[in-house]
Specification:
Helix content is 30%, strand content 18%. By secondary structure, the chain is α/β, with parallel strands linked by helices. The chain has 3 domains: 321 residues, Alpha-Beta Barrel (TIM Barrel); 200 residues, Glycoside hydrolase family 3 C-terminal domain (Rossmann fold, 3-Layer(aba) Sandwich), CATH 3.40.50.1700; 122 residues, Immunoglobulin-like.
């Protein structure tokens, strides 16, 4: 037993029942007689400290995932933890204990982005369990860095465990899934967060899973999370999820019953007010006081770990506010943004362009000068924003004429409501096309229509997308701009996959920019003009059309994501172009068989044939014998930096768990038979080969 657990037990033993119950609410009041200050557990840090004033606003999480770079994710997490501490120190100095002031961050979101229509998919690390797990572990470890015995901040893996829309129905929705999908797809990232990163908190989801609401789901919260994975932190409800037990799911009749069901089935902390009923519940014999003790001990233990209670940590308490969004953080932010951009198309090496190449650039589109499209949801406030238009203007200065038109509203048919014609701004865009040598067209979405129910507007299903098309007049704008025969570069700013079929046929180049963070416009300009080289990879599949997908409410993984789909995508998971050409050669697997608990190594030569110092990602996919998953799965990745013209000889290791699959009881096992291992620079599918021509090295190897 660690010292903080002992201290927490002693403290809780001195509390009255009423005091203990008060601490199970997210806005926990002070207990002055015991020296316990008030504490609000709710804070956000999805891609930077959020909703608490100035902070470094990194690219949205889906963009961070596109870097395929675990070390970069670690730097993002370290920045969040440092700025979070600095802001907490200031809040405490001024006597503030309210919401968004604490050190318990309700991030990361490790749900699997199973369907591009889900508005909150932007918050995730994408559609693949392995990539999500690796990114989440790096992020959590960085947030929870240990400094002289205390952790800088606490992370929370959410939303446990089967949650990805639909947003309008989430307070009563029942996700029906098989055990195979549960263990192979929906649980691995949570398991990694608990077992590898020792995440301090897990948040229960709104929806039910196979008929049982997540925040009172004994199988999830006790049988799997506690008993199977030995999770030692606390479980917090999503906000209002305990209320949903009686209002939405209607498994309880009253707030009292909801509180009893939540506490008795493993939910320790209530983001809501229902747990105030627990004093009565204990006195009535419906909840054991020992269960309340257990929950509160977990909460107090974390407060000791953070240094909120007990001895002060001079190093952590001394982190100054001056670190927030400072010069170093801005530079990191630009680096992350540039590395998140995915080059999907580049006909005849059209990009990069130079200032000498064109006399005039037309910058058109509803997201071209939009700050909101930079940041996505759950965002902080940056000290400066750089839109795409501003990034281009800053880069070219007076050397190139830059002309701008919004082109159309983001999703409405008219920019000025009933006062103007539907095509009023498209007419202006036509004028820009006529006098420009090249067009940078910036389309997409933003968090006003793509995001969480209640945050996003209701025009698009409370944050979800009805389809994959660009909304409003954007598709018409795209067609008009392409009709002029001028070179067109499409910048798609969205948190999810869009229908890019027309663009792929008519645009010279396409960049998937996600929501690239507060300084995203500079990063985009740097890529456009060749100041740096694109290296992002798709963490999601870009489908041809929405008809290729099952019904949104169907939680079966069949025909979803690259792991289960049978139809060819437009742009595959793991794909992304570079200005360099890379060659992977002489790949040799240095093993005769797969054995439990024994690493396998392989050697390879990676040659950068281009002119840029940049990076490429070696991707390892595995097809296990008798696997429930029909297609090869990503099971290892290596981000390799190469100087221009450099050839690197690599000796790389593959972890034993790379080959494990889940049995029907959720245990990881090594199947007997022949495994197929694919090593290359992209996925081993027909569409990736068609787009890249890259060779994939294929090996067959037997397990013991």
């Amino acid at each position: 037993m660690n010292k903080y657990r002992k201290m927490a037990e002693k403290l809780v033993s001195e509390m009255t029942l009423e005091e203990k119950v008060s601490q199970t609410l997210y806005d926990a009041p002070a207990i002055p007689r015991l020296g316990i200050p008030a504490y609000n557990w709710w804070n956000e840090s999805l891609h930077g400290v959020a909703r608490a004033g100035t902070a470094t606003v990194f690219p949205q999480t889906i963009g961070v995932a596109a870097t395929f770079d675990e070390d970069l994710v670690k730097k993002v997490g370290e920045t969040i933890a440092q700025e979070g501490r600095a802001k907490y120190n200031e809040a405490i100095k001024h006597g503030e204990h309210g919401i968004y002031k604490g050190l318990t961050f309700w991030a990361p979101n490790v749900n699997i982005f199973r369907d591009p229509r889900w508005g909150r998919g932007q918050e995730t690390f994408g559609e693949d369990p392995y990539l999500t797990s690796q990114m989440a572990v790096s992020f959590i470890n960085a947030i929870q860095e240990n400094v002289d015995g205390n952790i800088k901040a606490a992370a929370c893996a959410k939303h446990f465990a089967v949650h990805s829309g639909p947003e309008p129905d989430r307070h009563y929705f029942n996700a029906e899934i098989s055990d195979e999908d549960l263990y192979e797809t929906y649980l691995p990232a949570f398991e990694a967060a608990v077992k590898k990163a020792h995440v301090e908190a897990v948040m229960g989801a709104y929806n039910a899973v196979n008929g049982v609401p997540s925040c009172m789901n004994k199988r999830l919260l006790i049988d799997i999370l506690r008993n199977k994975w030995h999770f030692e932190g606390h479980v917090v409800s999503d906000c209002g999820a305990i209320k949903d037990l009686h209002r939405g799911h209607k498994v309880a009749k009253t707030p009292y019953e909801s509180a009893v069901f939540g506490m008795n089935n493993g939910c320790d902390l209530n983001c809501g007010g229902e747990y105030s009923e627990l004093t009565k519940a204990v006195k009535n014999g419906d909840v054991l006081e020992e269960r309340i003790d257990e929950a509160v001990i977990r909460l107090m233990e974390l407060r000791y770990k953070l240094g909120i209670l007990g001895e002060k940590n001079k190093k952590l308490d001394g982190i100054p506010y001056s670190v927030v969004d400072d010069k170093e953080k801005k530079e990191l932010n630009e680096e992350v943004a540039a590395k998140s951009l995915v080059l999907l198309k580049n006909d005849n090496d059209f990009l990069p362009i130079s200032k000498k190449q064109f006399k005039s650039i037309g910058v058109i589109g509803p997201n071209a000068d939009s700050r909101k499209a930079l940041v996505g949801n759950y965002e902080g406030t940056a000290s400066r924003y750089i839109t795409v238009l501003e990034g281009i203007e800053d880069y070219v200065g007076d050397e190139v004429i830059v002309r701008y038109s919004q082109g159309c509203h983001l999703y409405k048919t008219r920019k000025n409501a009933s006062l103007s014609m539907a095509t009023d701004r498209i007419a202006e865009a036509r004028s820009i096309c006529e006098v420009s040598d090249v067009i940078v067209l910036v389309l997409g979405l933003d968090a006003s229509i793509e995001g969480e129910a209640g945050d996003a507007g209701n025009d698009f299903a409370s944050g979800d997308k009805p389809d994959l098309f660009f909304p409003g007049m954007q598709t018409e704008l795209l067609e008009v701009v392409c009709s002029y025969g001028k070179p067109v570069v499409l910048i798609s700013m969205s948190g999810s996959a869009m229908d890019l079929r027309y663009a792929s046929e008519h645009c010279n180049a396409i960049i998937q920019a996600w929501y690239p963070g507060a300084r995203g416009g500079k990063a985009i300009a740097d890529i456009l003009f060749g100041e740096c080289c694109p290296e992002g990879k798709l963490p999601v599949t870009i489908y041809n059309k929405v008809q290729d997908l099952p019904d949104f409410k169907d939680y079966s993984m069949k025909s979803r994501t690259y792991r289960f789909m049978s139809k060819l995508p437009l742009y595959p998971f793991g794909y992304g172009m570079s200005y360099n050409k890379y060659e992977l050669k002489n790949v040799e697997l240095n093993a005769l068989k797969i054995e439990e608990n024994r690493k396998i190594s392989f050697s390879a030569d990676l040659r950068n044939l281009g002119e840029y110092n940049s990076a490429e990602t070696i991707q390892v996919y595995v097809k296990a014998p008798d696997s429930y998953v029909p297609n090869p799965q990503l099971r290892a990745l290596y981000k390799i930096r190469c100087l221009a013209k450099e050839c690197k000889h690599l000796e790389l290791e593959i972890s034993p768990e790379t080959f494990y699959v889940y049995d029907k009881n959720g245990n990881q096992i090594l199947n007997k038979g022949t495994y197929t291992i694919y090593i290359g620079l992209n996925q081993p599918d027909d569409r990736s080969y068609e787009l890249t021509g890259n060779r994939i090295y294929k090996f067959s190897i037997d397990s013991e």
